[in-house]
Amino acid sequence: MHQNIKNLGRLKESGYVSRTVKQEMRENLIRKMKKSEALFPGILGYEKTVIPQIQNAILAKHDLILLGLRGQAKTRILRMLVNFLDEYIPIVEGSEVNDDPLNPISKFAKDRIDELGDETPISWLHRDKRYGEKLATPDTTVADLIGDLDPIKAASLKLALANEEVINYGLIPRTNRGIFVINELPDLQPRIQVALLNIMQERDIQIRGFNIRIPLDVSMAFSANPEDYTNRGNIITPLKDRIDSQIITHYPRQMDVAVQITGQEAWMERGTEVAVKVPDIYREILEAVAFEARNSEYIDQKSGVSTRMTITAMEQAISAAERRAVLNNESETTLRITDLYAIVPALTGKLELVYEGEQEGAVNVAKHIIGKAINRIFKNTFPDPQKRKSEEEGKNPYQEILNWFAGGNFLEIPETISNKEYNNKLDSVKGLSETAHKFIDAKGYDLYPVMDLIIEALHQNSKIGKDDIDDSNTYTDMLGSMLGGMTGFDDDDFSDEF
Q1: Which residues contact 293 (CB under 8 A, 6 or more apart)?
Q2: 206 and 284 belong to one structural domain
Q3: Is residue 368 part of a domain?
Q4: Cα–Cα distance between 493 and 498 in angstroms, integer?
Q5: Residue 480: which domain range?
Q6: Residue 484 pLDDT > 60, yes or no?
Q7: What distance lies between CA 4 and its chain's CA centroid?
């Protein structure tokens, strides 16, 4: 409502009252809470943990740090803090540090107001322009963050270096009356962290030899990875002491939340001529890959397994199905087991392996983890193949399928086989369709990917053998597979051992 006001005199007449950034954030948070507005839209899984702690920090007018492993939405959350600022605030027009017309801090603004009085022009700054961010890197300098003298400005304006107008302000002063975020704080050299101490406590800065201190109104927030404390650097103790709230982030703890996050973030609806369906059970398998990786002895758990991994994995799986449909000139297809193994490139670049993992190789470890995820989700719906008899019927529910393979039959599924051929091949396995129907509600459900899953799960439980050669999976009787494999070994056999 004030945006039409263009000078200081009219601003005073309007009754405008200045507030500090933290007071502004606090009052806007309270207003949003009373209206039951979404505080951090799109952030899932933190409703009872991280978000209440951030609310408490804002209500207490605290500077805060989000501490957590990679891929836990730390930066995304910090960028959303700007939503707690007023939509517009007035500044002295032309000010580099967003001077409040009623409480100017820079020489430029003070001189302008002394000269023009109530006619001092003002402009209105949107909340999006009141957010500053810096990724901490070893080459970050005090001049980058705080500022320095500018000899070129001094020469062009014919001013002495002792004149305050030759200061070239850094990122933090330019975010005065806003929020400034430093990501990966431990990467900042200790001597640079020292430069932040005054901002954090006394809320001012001092540049070079100037006697004058410039009081800033800025809300500071940081992110850090616990791994950084030992591998790359430290947050110096005086700075940690000045950060009021340390909030620990975490990975999704429930499968349904993880599925929601990937569904929200992954590029799934591509608007192309090919429609790719993703069965719910396959969505869970893709999330289980991350859960298994976070418990794997082959993965460095201190490094973490980013949520970005499952997002890119989903995109890779959909791309594999899309590629197959295009090659077969089909308008739609459904995710298959071969598509799940197509996510290996999405895993190998995001998993930090320990020594044992390096010995096995990144690709083999990725395949092993995918296999464990398949087995985990399979057993949530189907009887455990390791149990010889089901309690209900007194017989192995998979026996007919196993007998089919024991009879010398095999099932070969190439990656790019058409839908019709794929269905026919699965239909040829005796007892497979009946088993899928028995444990899955068939109404509105494509059972062929489920039938594919049953075959792969029987392999993961060492009930049938599998040859994974280039672009094709071939399933055979377990005994025949073992006898055939006695002639030699190669690196690809690793994934078949699990």
Answers
A1: 299, 305, 309, 347, 351, 369
A2: no
A3: yes
A4: 10
A5: 255-497
A6: no
A7: 40
Mean pLDDT lowest among 225-234, 362-371, 396-405, 435-444: 225-234
CA nearest neighbour of 184 among 149, 225, 139: 225
Q: Measure the CA–CA gap between 123 and 118, rounded to whole angstroms.
A: 14
Residue 431 has pLDDT above 50, yes or no: yes
264 and 153 in a common domain: no
**How many folded domains does the chain comprise?**
2
Cβ neighbours for 115, distance < 8 A, ≥ 6 positions apart: none
Q: In this structure, is residue 210 part of a structural domain?
A: yes
Radius of gyration of the chain (CA): 30
Q: Is pLDDT at 394 greater than 80 in this prediction?
A: no
| 470 part of a folded domain | yes
Rounded to whole angstroms, how far apart are CA atoms 401 and 455?
9
In order of 15, 99, 121, 215, 236, the CA distances from 104 in angstroms are 17, 5, 13, 10, 32
Examine the domain organization and report whether 354 and 435 are in the same domain. yes
Contact status, residue 370 vs residue 341, Cβ threshold 8 Å: yes
Fill in the amino acid letter for 163.
N
Q: Choose the final residue of a domain: 216, 248, 280.
A: 248
Question: Mapped to the 3 state alphabet, what secondary structure does 244-290 carry?
Answer: CEEEECCCCCCHHHHHHHHHHHCCCCCCCCCEEECCHHHHHHHHHHH
Tokens 């309690």 sit on residue: 391
Whether the pLDDT of residue 230 is over 80: the answer is no
**Kind of pairing, strands 64-67 and 245-248?**
parallel
Shared domain check, 178 and 244? yes
CA distance 427 to 421: 10
Residue 48 in tokens: 């009872």
180 shares its domain with 269 = no
The size of the chain, in residues, is 498
d(C-alpha 29, C-alpha 350), whole Å:
36
User: In terms of domains, do 280 and 237 share one?
Assistant: no
* Residue carrying the six token digits 């002491």: 241
